[in-house]
Amino acid sequence: MYPENFRYTKEHEWILVAGDIATIGITDHAQQELGDIVYVDLPRVGTHLEQGKSLGSVESVKAVSDIYAPVSGEVTEINGILADTPERLNESPHDAAWLIKMKLSAPGEVAGLMSAADYQTYIGAEK
Amino acid sequence: MRYLPKSDSERRAMLDVCGASSADELFAHLPPAVRLQRPLALPAGISEYEIIDTFRKLGAENANGYASFLGAGVYHHFRPVLVDTVVSRGEFLTAYTPYQAEISQGTLTAIFEFQTMICQLTGMDVANASMYDGSTAVPEAAMMAARATGKARVLAARSVHPEYREVLRTYARNQGMPVEEFGYVSASGAIDLEDLERKLDDLTAAVIVQSPNFFGIVEPVKAAAELAHRRGALLIVVFTEAVSLGILEPPAAADIVAGELQSFAISPNYGGPFAGIIATKEKLIRQMPGRLVGQTVDTNGNRAFCLTLATREQHIRREKATSNICTNQALIALMATVFMTVYGKQGLRELAEQNLAKAHYLAGKVGPRFSGRFFNEFVAKVDDPEAVNKALLKKKIVGGLPLGRFYPELADCMLLCATEMSRRADMDLVGQAMGQPVAAGQEVLA
Amino acid sequence: MITKVRGHLSQNEALIFERSSPGKRAYQLPELDVPAVDAAEALGAVNVRAEIEGFPEISEVEAIRHFTRLSTWNYAIDHGMYPLGSCTMKYNPRINELVARIEGLAWAHPYQPEALSQGCMDVMARLEAALAEITGMDAVTLQPAAGAHGELTGILLVRALLEKRGNPRKKILIPDSAHGTNPATAAIAGYAVQNIPSSASGVLDVAALEQLVDQDVAALMVTNPNTLGVFEDNISQAAEILHAKGALLYMDGANMNALVGIARPGDFGVDLMHLNLHKTFSTPHGGGGPGAGPVAVKKVLEPFLPTPRLKRAGKKWAWDYKRKHSIGRVRSFYGNFGVLVRALAYILAHGGPGLRNATVDAVLNAVYIRKQLEPYYDLPYPSPNMHEVVFSDERQAKLGVRTGDIAKRLIDYGFHPYTVSFPLIVHGALMIEPTETEGKLELDQFIEAMIAIAREAELDPEAVKSAPHGARTSRVDEVTAARKPVLRWKA
């Protein structure tokens, strides 16, 4: 369920690192909690993100959830499909409906994030 | 008391169920120190007849049966009879906010129609279900512009309603939003485009202009838009006289329109309640404050309406909301909706044409101070505005608004408004009071 | 067995634009008594608009049918109870509508001479005095247009006072049980919001408060009774803690319907508060507004109140604009006068003793509901409740039925739903406030309905989850409405 090659945050974001570029999304657990997603608010390309700070938000009909940057860096790409079809985020949170790509400024930050196994334990405990 | 539908025996039966031997016991858990130890110092309740009598007497202390040439943000227009017929229906009057769409389709449909009509009138893509009034719509629009541009500074024309500018300042002060003003051209009464250009900079989030402005003058909206956009600022156009939209080109060059709908069958009511609107272009939808009604379907595929995009609002986003506003002026907006429906496409145009005719007749008698084009309000120069108004009062006419209180440089001027309700004979008397000779057969001012 | 309602036919009705056709009219203007003016000449051709495309063109008969049909699709207080928590959906007395339309009052222009506006000013002065007495405060402003507007005014007053004392401070403390307008207001007023968690018993955690109040805290915003319907019995203590550190206590007056004539916020340490005239004082909701949100303050805050204020000038009333410490205007003119008239009429009808009786009945009704429903719905906080009670859907949720479903099923029983999923401190909340204007029959029918639905949750959960079945529409698709917003009609 939770890809082994991702790393995870307590705020239910995932990150996939390839060199100094990372892809970021929200987890399946997160999209389930949110319910039907209606809108995704993403930062502009070029925005500098700081680990732990909000980079945008995801909205369902009755709730808004902030998305927090798992690591620091600069936004290089945002996923265009989410503007017209935010529901893809419910369907494919771990692949087609990634949120942003970014260039890492402090790759060492990744080591502090959870593994898939740790994340599963974490959400198991949360229930 | 006739509003309390329980008999004493019912109360006793209910207290039994509650396990209390008296109503006092229900409050026994309160700390004694907080309890009010005496009755409220208010007289006993009075009968229906006495209530009506009280308010009739209060109404009699006010102007009754006076003709009025006051405008300045509140206008005397005829209210079609159907308006009160509709809003007096209990299903509209006593209904709650339409959060439960399945049993609120009446309110929701009417608001959807309202939003549509405002878009049709203003040339904007989307309109909300109303703000408290025109004056608070202005800072809300300014805050929208600040959010959308990421900038803070606001430039407001001096020819925007003075009280609206005061309200803007009250809000802006706490938003880290510097507000500066730019002037009007002394000859025309329209905004000073050169002054605007000088004062614009790259830190400006919004330029605010009113058209027709406080002096009644039609503003060069397109030119203002060009100047603003060149510097990455948004243009907010304000209106206080909604009837003007029946004949004036809508401000399509604006990014946000903020206005007041009091002219649309809302009684002057000594200043409120009114209904403001914010209308804007598609791209700014998510920055809009206030309620929005959207079209959808139910589980059977039938068209239905519901409140939507609620995630902008306070009950969800709390401190990150686009505004703290909760209320929309639903019943007032409904009055406006009925008004717009009754007059319709032809009627609103004809109504505006009548207003134009009346005001230009009066201006012909009195002579406008400014050369700019005007709709149903204009400024007249007169040596002693107070004296003129005093003379008019003797004929049960309330004259125009002396402008000295808001514009010291115009202390020798008054703002006059004529609508479809203004009578020729009264306008002739106003002309006389301002020094015009009496024409043959006219009533004479004492 | 549903006793309160039965289905009946309701008319279909298209949008007004879909009913329009060119040339139909519902208006007639009189002939002009002055010469007509050519629009292009008077305004400049470039300023004259083309016709208003798509604007309605219908006859008077169609107009009245249109709006009448629409109205029949609404539920309203005139139909039956709204058990909405913290909304105080009480009867809207019709006499209020009559007096508000008295011509001398309704037609008054805010700029007409003061000598000819004494009636309006007298209405406002009387209401100010009555509200000051009811709240135990020293001065009242009637300017704010709604509750949230009153909150904003209040927080601006706090800022002004603290600024005068040398430091406006940075934060407002807000309980996690607060209405959403509270933190939104604090943000608009330029303050940071700090949440203060409620104690295990649902009231203010005074120990936590003591920890949190420092020199950066400007005020605590509290609702009393709180959104659980429970009286904040530590409120005087909270006031002391705040005052000792130079901070203020703001009370959100949304739940005043539990206190009128029983306790006065000014007597238990509140420095300023707002009232909702469209809640406690019976002015009609009208489908979402207008309201009015007067703010009542202690003497120390009076100089900062919005301008202008009423003052006595000999035997008459006058508007005082010379108020150098005022926060300025929060809206144009003087207030929602039309709403103020209705509130004053309500107060006159009840009178002092009557207002207290109304409060007693409001609390009796809510406690009665609590007692009857306790066996069927989980009660998360066992403290005594006042005018409202909060249950949770915990028992039903185990069966897959949530508070939102129960609310929709209540519609089939002939009631408007209670407040769903608020306050946030209760998971799956059902927040119920009957108000004093409900009789025993209506209350008993409500209780029977809630009990029946609790049974249905066990025996026939699908009936609940797919409700409502008998309304004008079935459940609407809010998701599509938000994903693909259609906010106006297009040809």
Description:
The complex is a heterotrimer of chains A (127), B (446) and C (491). Chain A contains 4 helices and 9 strands; from the N terminus they run βββαβββββααβα. With 127 residues, chain A is an alpha+beta fold. Chain A has one domain (7-126): Beta Barrel (OB fold (Dihydrolipoamide Acetyltransferase, E2P)). In chain A, the strands form 2 sheets. A 6-stranded antiparallel β-sheet of chain A has the order 1-2-3-9-8-5. Chain A has a 3-stranded antiparallel β-sheet with strand order 4-6-7, with no helix packed on it. In chain A, a hairpin with a 2-residue loop joins β2 and β3 (21-26). The two termini of chain A are 17 Å apart. Chain B is α/β, with parallel strands linked by helices. Chain B has 2 domains: 67-78 and 344-433, Alpha-Beta Complex (Aspartate Aminotransferase, domain 1), CATH 3.90.1150; 81-338, Aspartate Aminotransferase, domain 2, CATH 3.40.640.10. Chain B has a 7-stranded mixed β-sheet with strand order 2-8-7-6-5-3-4, sandwiched between helices. A 3-stranded antiparallel β-sheet of chain B has the order 11-14-13, covered by helices on one side. Chain C is of the alpha/beta class. Chain C folds into 3 domains: 16-71, no CATH class; 95-348, Type I PLP-dependent aspartate aminotransferase-like (Major domain) (Aspartate Aminotransferase, domain 2, 3-Layer(aba) Sandwich); 358-478, Aspartate Aminotransferase, domain 1 (Alpha-Beta Complex). Chain C has helices at 16-19, 39-43, 60-71, 94-100, 103-106, 118-135, 147-164, 181-188, 206-212, 235-244, 337-373, 394-397, 403-412, 440-459, 461-465, 478-483, and strands at 139-141, 171-175, 192-196, 217-223, 248-252, 272-274, 295-297, 309-313, 316-320, 389-392, 419-420, 429-432. In chain C, the strands form 3 sheets. Chain C has a 7-stranded mixed β-sheet with strand order 1-7-6-5-4-2-3, sandwiched between helices. In chain C, a hairpin with a 2-residue loop joins β8 and β9 (316-320). In chain C, α4 (94-100) runs antiparallel to α11 (337-373), α6 (118-135) runs parallel beside α11 and α11 (337-373) packs across α14 (440-459). The chains are: A alpha+beta (127), B alpha/beta (446), C alpha/beta (491). Chains in contact: A-B, A-C, B-C.
